[in-house]
């Protein structure tokens, strides 16, 4: 009986919030049609926090913990995961799913927990005056669409007049995000936009590629995720669509998207928001995490495109937590302090260099009004012979004159719909 | 000992025909209701409500609906997800078009709209049966999801194609939207469950239900003894779709809050509800509850046991869940086609004889 009591007490103490730690829940998906993208991202996210624990003893001396919860990219499971991990003192949520993001935006706003949707989610969350708890720095979909068009303008000597651009998109909130921006850009630059929707999960695209074969668009832009990317690249190869006129967004440009098509995928273009190649931080992860047997998953993804992005997301969260600790002068921060940290986050070239990832993303700062960052992206190309992505351009800036009014319009519509009084950031 | 008819004298026909002929069952029934209505709302927390109880209640309605159609009337349907989507989109359109309307009316109207759509897709059942009907309802599933994706009017031309439940008040407290307290949502769903399951129970043991069962057991014989198959099948489709529509409406308005049709109401939802009915027990109201509870609880219990207690990787636990659900379906189909409800029935039989089985 006494033993049982001791055990119970020990169990309670282990479960209690008394232990100082920073909790970063990872709503991951390692199963289902989107697992190919979910696994490397989740591995990168978890490994970076493990590295911080092993090398530095956490953030500001407080250990981090990353409870993982499987969502299978399903919104209902996402809600369950959110509720399950919320009570553990979650500092920030990164669900890596636009669908789950839409579920969580009202909830985190009511519960006061920041939500960081890096390069996905609701684009108009960039307006910090309306979306106090939601961040989507350093870039969002509308920026991505604009960056792609800016790149194409550059390729075509500044004019897309009379060209035909097809948008192949995942028929969900995620895939539909760039349509508004592209429609306005089409009007502005005089190109024709052909919209081709691919239904979840994205294996069936025969019809869409038949249309592409018939319409012969000058460029195909893809907003795909999961198994849809692999199928699209294969289908493009099948109809011999020129790969260097086929551009994916940053969620359609990982190694596993192009590998199945083999040599036929050579020349496929995609956006990226990170730099590629050997970052010094990878050696440290290898040393402190993988060699110590602490790697998340099977440890095979180190250095891949989405692993780097997951690690980048973790780095931004860790830096925001550090900023929050500095602002409030306490080590054990809570969710609202974390929000302050995210809003005051400043990423400089020097800081990235210090962290062992020079130039991994753009340098930027977050402000009260702008939760969206600079929105820059770079174009990369797949080299099938060497099986690696080659970065073609430097960071390209989006056309803010197009995206800004859209963000304003959509966020104000949200504010009205949900009865939010926008904050005044000028104060 | 305490679970038996002896000493409980029935002096009227009504008493003889009641749902719970054994006194102990009646007390248990009222006790469950009492706990559900008066105790749980006081002690409920966000996790229990959002992860377990609210989805259980909502899926229980859907399972009862499908059970009416498949279990009682014998018409196989794979269109449950599509009909739930009709309920959800009807709710959304009503909520945004008639801002003054209260949520109970909206939910019931959504059920009625779904019933209309269900009758429309039930028409083929008059000519085709079995597999062929399953395929026809499968077409309904894909058609409905496709149309909600394709026609922007259904999602009020929003850029994302999502529908979001705005905040609505009832008796001065919000029932939908992020600011609604969980006990309000829970009670709202519970109210529908209590009323609808009472209706379902009494429909299925009345003349309508007898006609359904006659059609299920042998439609030609039923026709010969005077059951009108047109009326029986279409009422089954209408009432079943009403239940399913209400459940879709609640899933959207009080549980999810934001819905994307292909993801929330895809074919996997149809199968989920079908599995609830198969595991719970075809042709049983209790089975619908048992099946819904089982399918909602299983992933959560597995997650708590596997991930939180044993520290297994999350993907292994998820795969394990597929294996267990698949295995259980095969097991129940072979060993106990009448599902959990039959096990419950057997347990009650045994209990009557206990402690002196002969």
Number of strands of chain B: 4
Q: Which percent range fits the helix content of chain B?
A: over 70%
CATH superfamily of the largest domain in chain A: Response regulator
What's the average pLDDT of chain B? 90
Strand content of chain A: 5-15%
The low-pLDDT segments of chain A are 1-18
Using DSSP, what is the number of strands of chain A? 15
Q: Main sheet of chain A: which strands, in order across?
A: 8-7-9-10-11-14-15
Assign the CATH architecture of the largest domain in chain A.
3-Layer(aba) Sandwich
Oligomer type: heterodimer
SS element count, helices of chain A: 15
Alpha plus pi helix count of chain B: 15
Spatial sequence of strands, sheet with the most strands of chain B: 1-4
Q: How much of the sequence of chain B is in beta strands?
A: under 5%
C-alpha-based Rg of chain A, rounded: 22 Å
Describe this structure in words.
The complex is a heterodimer of chains A (427) and B (358). Chain A is an alpha/beta fold and 427 residues long. In chain A, the strands form five sheets. In chain A, strands 8-7-9-10-11-14-15 form a seven-stranded mixed sheet, with helices on both faces. In chain A, strands 1-3 form a two-stranded parallel sheet. In chain A, helix 9 links the parallel strand 9 and strand 10. The N terminus of chain A is likely disordered. Chain B has 15 helices and four strands. Helices cover 72% and strands 2% of the residues of chain B. In chain B, helix 13 packs antiparallel against helix 14. Chain B is globular. The chains are: A alpha/beta (427), B mainly alpha (358). Chains A and B meet through strand 4, helix 3 and helix 4 of A and helix 3, strand 4, helix 11, helix 13 and helix 14 of B.
């Amino acid at each position: 009986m006494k033993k049982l009591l001791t055990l119970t007490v020990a169990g309670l103490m282990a479960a209690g919030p008394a232990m100082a730690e920073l909790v970063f829940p990872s709503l991951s998906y390692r199963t289902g049609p989107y697992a190919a993208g979910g696994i490397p991202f989740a591995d990168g996210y978890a490994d970076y926090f493990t590295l911080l624990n092993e090398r530095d003893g956490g953030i500001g001396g407080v250990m981090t913990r990353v409870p993982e919860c499987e969502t299978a990219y399903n919104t209902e499971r996402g809600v369950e995961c959110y509720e399950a991990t919320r009570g553990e003192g979650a500092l920030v949520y990164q669900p890596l799913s636009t669908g789950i993001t839409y579920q969580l935006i009202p909830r985190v706003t009511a519960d006061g927990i920041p939500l960081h949707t890096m390069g996905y989610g609701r684009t108009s969350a960039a307006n910090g005056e309306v979306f106090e708890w939601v961040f989507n720095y350093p870039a969002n979909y509308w920026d991505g669409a604009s960056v792609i068009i800016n790149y194409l303008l550059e390729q075509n000597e500044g004019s897309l007049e009379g060209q035909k651009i097809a948008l192949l998109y995942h028929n969900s909130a995620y895939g539909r995000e760039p349509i508004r921006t592209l429609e306005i850009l089409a009007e502005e630059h005089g190109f024709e936009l052909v919209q081709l929707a691919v239904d979840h999960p994205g294996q069936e695209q025969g019809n869409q590629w038949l249309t592409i074969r018939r319409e012969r668009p000058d460029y195909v832009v893809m907003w795909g995720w999961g198994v849809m990317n692999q199928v699209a690249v294969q289908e493009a190869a099948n109809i011999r669509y020129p790969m260097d006129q086929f551009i994916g967004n940053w969620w359609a440009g990982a190694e596993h998207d192009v590998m199945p098509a083999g040599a036929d995928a050579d020349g496929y273009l995609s956006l990226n928001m990170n730099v590629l190649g050997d970052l010094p931080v990878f050696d440290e992860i290898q040393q402190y995490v993988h060699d110590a047997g602490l790697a998340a998953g099977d440890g095979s993804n180190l250095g891949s495109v989405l692993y780097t992005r997951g690690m980048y997301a973790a780095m931004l969260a860790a830096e925001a937590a550090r900023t929050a600790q500095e602002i409030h002068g306490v080590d054990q921060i809570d969710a609202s302090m974390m929000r302050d940290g995210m809003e005051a986050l400043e990423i400089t070239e020097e800081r990235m260099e210090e962290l062992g990832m020079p130039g991994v993303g753009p340098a930027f700062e977050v402000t009260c009004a702008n939760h969206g960052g600079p929105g820059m992206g770079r174009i990369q190309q797949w080299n099938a012979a060497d099986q690696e992505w080659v970065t073609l351009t430097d960071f390209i800036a989006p056309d803010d004159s197009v995206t800004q009014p859209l963000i304003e319009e959509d966020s104000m519509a949200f504010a009205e719909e949900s009865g939010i009084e926008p904050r005044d950031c000028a104060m | 000992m305490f679970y038996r008819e002896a000493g409980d004298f029935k002096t009227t026909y009504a008493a003889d025909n009641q749902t719970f002929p054994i006194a102990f069952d009646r007390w248990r029934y009222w006790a469950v209701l009492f706990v559900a209505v008066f105790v749980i709302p006081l002690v409920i927390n966000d996790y229990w409500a959002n992860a377990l109880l609210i989805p259980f209640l909502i899926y229980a309605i859907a399972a009862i609906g499908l059970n009416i159609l498949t279990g009682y009337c014998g018409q196989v349907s794979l269109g449950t997800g599509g009909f739930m989507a009709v309920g959800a989109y009807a709710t959304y359109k009503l909520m945004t078009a008639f801002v003054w309307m209260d949520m109970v009316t909206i939910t019931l109207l959504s059920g009625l709209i779904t019933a209309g759509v269900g009758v429309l897709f039930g028409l083929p059942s008059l000519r085709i049966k079995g597999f062929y009907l399953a395929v026809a309802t499968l077409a309904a599933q894909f058609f409905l999801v496709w149309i909600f994706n394709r026609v922007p009017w259904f999602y009020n031309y929003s850029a994302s194609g999502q529908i979001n439940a705005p905040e609505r008040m009832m008796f001065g407290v919000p029932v939908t939207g992020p600011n609604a307290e969980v006990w309000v949502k829970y009670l709202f769903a519970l109210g529908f469950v209590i009323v609808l399951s009472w209706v379902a129970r009494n429909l299925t043991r009345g003349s309508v239900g007898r006609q359904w069962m006659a059609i299920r057991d042998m439609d030609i014989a039923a026709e010969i003894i005077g059951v009108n198959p047109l009326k029986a099948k279409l009422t089954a489709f209408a009432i079943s779709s009403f239940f399913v529509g209400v459940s879709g409406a609640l899933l959207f308005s009080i549980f999810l809050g934001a819905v994307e049709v292909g993801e929330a109401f895809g074919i996997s939802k149809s199968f989920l509800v079908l599995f609830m009915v198969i595991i719970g027990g075809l042709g049983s109201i209790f089975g619908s509850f048992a099946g819904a509870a089982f399918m909602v609880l299983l992933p959560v219990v597995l997650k708590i046991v596997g991930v939180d207690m044993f520290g297994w990787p999350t993907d292994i636990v998820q795969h394990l869940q597929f294996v267990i659900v698949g295995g259980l379906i095969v097991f129940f189909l072979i060993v106990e086609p009448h599902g959990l409800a039959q096990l419950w029935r057997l347990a009650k039989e045994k209990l009557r004889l206990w402690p002196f089985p002969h």
